[in-house]
Amino acid sequence: MKNTISALLLGTAIALSVASIASADDKVVKIGVLSDQSGLYADLAGPGSTLAAQMAIEDSGLKAKGWTIDLISGDHQNKPDIGTTIARQWFDVDKVDTVVDVPNSGVALAVNNVVKEKNGVYINSGAATSDLTNAQCSPNTVHWTYDTYMLAHATGQALVKAGGDTWFFLTADYAFGAALERDTTAVVTANGGKVVGGVKHPLNTADFSSFLLQAQASKAKIIGLANAGGDTTNSIKQAAEFGIVKGGQKLAALLLFLTDVKAIGLETAQGLNFTETFYWDLNDNTRAFSKRFSARMKNSAPPTMVQAGVYAGLMHYFKALEALGGNPHDGAKVVAKMKTIPTDDPLFGKGEVEANGRVTHDAYLFEVKKPSESKGPWDFYKLVGTVPGNQAFTPLDKSTCALLKK
Amino acid sequence: MQALYAQLLVGLINGSFYALLSLGLAVIFGMLNIINFAHGALYMMGAFVAYFLLNLGGINYWWALLIAPVIVGIFGMILERTMLQWLAGLDHLYGLLLTFGIALIVQGVFQNYFGSSGLPYSIPDQLKGGVNLGFMFLPIYRGWVVIFSLVVCLATWFLIEKTQLGAYLRAATENPTLVRAFGINVPRMITLTYGLGVGLAALAGVLSAPINQVRPLMGADLIIVVFAVVVIGGMGSIMGSIITGFALGVIEGLTKYFYPEASNTVVFVLMVVVLLVKPTGLTGRAA
């Protein structure tokens, strides 16, 4: 009898202690990299983003401090339904805490809702739409690297000021293209320019000649490419073929990645102006990171800004976790902590996570080098100007994020 | 009105790719009864071979036009000898599944090594620049594509419909046993025909390399449209596939002008309409 009672007491004690462990913070983190692993954005994000996440986990040093960090990755195939299904499964079955990367604005917005519903953490680096920190902002979301507002303001403003006051848009027909066109149009008109026309093309179009002819006929000084990845490279390549630049019109690649320049080739891409927030050859820190990164990439490619954003975003996330002393498995709480710590990392420099989830850091205006100026296989960019972080992104008083109206 | 002319011409340019590819498919289907889903992957290989020839061997575009189809054609013949020939008597579905699998494997391998954003291949110097036609600026290279593919299409049609060799081929499809009785090596002829169809795909790949990116998925994006072209034209009809190829390019071009959002679905809408009205395709005969 005595034994039974003590056994019961012991059992209760064990049960209680187990229960208290489960409810309190532990040091277990599971991260899911959700990306386009095989489609048109796979080179600028994809496997490279997974590598960046892996490097962030290693560099955080948390493992040595007793943390267990797991990493999984998934392929959303640029389809919102697939993206949300994977995200749901990750939260419900695999007990993932944090979803990172998610290029393709359409998928990114869909996943945004899932993460909010499941109270996870969402560190987006790959998507462009500024809606993530405006109309559709969420207490669980941090948006790193870039957005359509930033691209529109940096590139758009520079071009209008240089005399490009009439615009024609080639726009990818989905959430991203629409957002980029909208934000750029606002900049163009605010600076006294005019949008004379535009055409929406399906995502992943091989032939742009019809659209380019319409752009040519519009006589606009600037042809704004509100598209990305393979769509942008094909537009630029074919625009050269149709003599558009020689005819006096200028192309504005509103979103151009390192891998796109590689795909177009310097011969055709030279002279293009565009904006990015990271370039491997920017300073000693970026060069050091890129060297380690490309040594582990299959084709020795240096990181794109999206991949760099995955790394930096996770590093900041780990800082917040460490400051919390454990993982509360409460996305909103972790993101709130991330907002209280100023960001400071070797790739993007100093900045902050604003109340709407937007991360601010410097943005750089680049020009693509001439083939004769390029000294190595990835030596593509010339730095033309810098937009300070506090001016590059949506000012908080203009943000339509509901989190700001408390 | 000027814009309309320009769109018609642009449509013809795209149509020439559709025509070359659907012609190859029609030849293979007509002679081998195989629905060759690997066609897009072979088209992509053509472009990649051209890229390698230029960057590794220093062999220019003009030689690539000749060499790439031969190399890819040989690859195709090996496929036919080692795999496809065993499916000869079976349902179409088996050939379709096998070639679809081959396409996925080939694309996967290329994607693994070359990523997805593609490699640059520039227009040969002789064909750079363009001419102003008054209603549009026509890049010389595009004009070349239209003329060259038209010539290749007609030559293929002539070879199969008007020559002795073509007559053997057609006879061998009708009744292989009887043709074999005349002392003609039917299996070898079938292998060569598959090689020819594949070579046409590779040729289209080389032609498109300077226009589009040389990308592992360039064929996957195109092949579905080309299949729709073949279905509309009538499976296995040589002239039908050439004419529909060009015609659909033009229709697609016009859609890009009047309602661009629908430009990548218009071909399929037409396909549905044609299948409802005339299930054998526009030029196909009832089996």
Structural notes for this entry:
The complex is a heterodimer of chains A (406) and B (287). In chain A, the strands form four sheets. Chain A has a five-stranded parallel β-sheet with strand order 2-1-3-4-5, sandwiched between helices. Chain A has a four-stranded parallel β-sheet with strand order 7-6-8-9, with helices on both faces. In chain A, strands 10-14-15 form a three-stranded antiparallel β-sheet. Chain A is α/β, with parallel strands linked by helices and 406 residues long. Chain A has helices spanning 2-23, 46-60, 80-92, 105-117, 148-161, 175-190, 209-217, 229-241, 258-264, 266-269, 284-296, 305-324, 331-340, 389-392; strands at residues 28-35, 68-75, 98-101, 121-124, 141-143, 166-172, 194-201, 222-226, 250-253, 273-276, 343-345, 349-353, 359-360, 363-368, 381-387. Chain A has two domains: 28-146 and 282-361, 3-Layer(aba) Sandwich (Rossmann fold), CATH 3.40.50.2300; 149-278 and 363-389, 3-Layer(aba) Sandwich (Rossmann fold), CATH 3.40.50. Chain A contains 14 helices and 15 strands. In chain A, helix 2 (46-60) runs parallel beside helix 12 (305-324), helix 5 packs parallel to helix 6 and helix 8 packs parallel to helix 9. By secondary structure, chain B is an all-alpha fold. Chain B has one domain: ABC transporter involved in vitamin B12 uptake, BtuC, CATH 1.10.3470. Chain B contains eleven helices and two strands, in the order H-H-H-H-E-E-H-H-H-H-H-H-H. Chain B has a two-stranded antiparallel sheet with strand order 1-2. In chain B, helix 2 (39-57) packs across helix 9 (218-233), helix 3 (61-82) packs antiparallel against helix 8 and helix 5 packs across helix 6 (164-174). Chain B is globular, with a radius of gyration of 19 Å. The model of chain B has no long low-confidence stretch (mean pLDDT 89). Classes of the chains: A alpha/beta (406), B mainly alpha (287). At the A-B interface, strand 7, helix 7, helix 8 and helix 9 of A face helix 1, helix 4, helix 9 and helix 10 of B.
